[in-house]
# Entry
Amino acid sequence: MKYSFDELKRKISIIEIAEHYGYQYQRGEGVRVPVYRHENGDKIGIFNPQDSYQQRYFNMQDGTDKGSLYNFVKNRLSNGIINNPLSYPESNDENASINAVLHNYLNVPLITREKNRQNIALLRRQLCGEEEKVDYQEQLGKIEHKEFFYARGITDKTLHSELFKDRIFNIKGEYSIGFPLWNEDKIVGLEKRNRDVKKFYTGSDKANGIWHSNIPEKIQAVFVAETPLDCIAHRQLKGNDNTLYISFGGNLCATQILTINKLLNANREKIDANRFKFLLGSDNDSAGASYDLAFLRTQISLQGNISEQMFSKDMEIQKFEIRYKEQGSYTNALQMKELVNSDVKIEEKTGEEGQRIVIEYPNNMFAKRSLCEAMLRTHRLPFTQLEKAVMKDWNDDVMVLREINKNRQDKKLTYTEFASNKESYMRDCSLFEQKRLEQKKTVKM
# Structure
């Protein structure tokens, strides 16, 4: 029996088809907007999880990959997660291919379909309040136990800054630190940190929530980093009270960038337009470079262009395209060819879909950093710049500087002196890295 697409939407949810093709529910990463992850790294959030017909999805790494069941199947056929069940030339018919995928699913054994629906039932129980809810506010106590910060070189002066007042807490009855996630002045999640634990409470909305400092009276910069600890360390090293600090929790999504934009729009009267800038402060590693690239791609999409991830057979190679709405933007983008390193391939494409470029690069920090720098120079993003630590992250910089100054009898070394002349302190940096590796081995044993 053949069904219309409208009938198929009523029979098959996005969650159900996603489960069938290997996506797994990430419990603890979202209830209102549940999160699913594929083994290839593709990560999606689901709107309206209780209603099959009204369900919508969004890709947490690509703001242009979103929409209905139709879009989900179409884009997974494109990137290879779903194999096209039709043979050539029928496989060239997009609607026929999507129709075949969905009708084929209706023919799988009922026991398989029931298994795929188990997490849907779990989500419904959570959304209806049948599972225990966590009151994040009730978990938070006044910050009195600061040993976690002291061990990492963070001082009371930094912690007592007006920027961090009522933004850093102890978990009640514990020495652990609590970092709330906010979305429009509402706490939507909670991260717990101590020496041995780094976790988010069940139900935390990591797809939309961000940790952020208090809003300064004058916003001259927004510093975006992976963890609140990096934000606090940056404030200690740089000492700028006109910076708004934001952490995305080590999982940057396009929807979190929208949350950041909403926060800035709500405080637009405080923005110093003449000096304002975004500072991308992710870690000095491959993952950090991926976050920077995701942030820049979302900004480029907000300019009206379209940035889409593309399928690559080689897991070590990443690939995406950008379609430009304006000739000038496309012409400027072509200059990236002269700016990226030799590992990054940029190809011009023209046709019915308009002017576009396809970018292919190895999944390593150096290629992605090179691409980020080229995109900043060619895509009219004057308010954005990379802000990188000397070491892997900003808290490492705090601890290395502390070790250097322990052995100095004369004037203490400032961070500016350390960062501008880091070659002179490479031995100290190497000793720090060696010590950290030894500590990791000890913990594993």
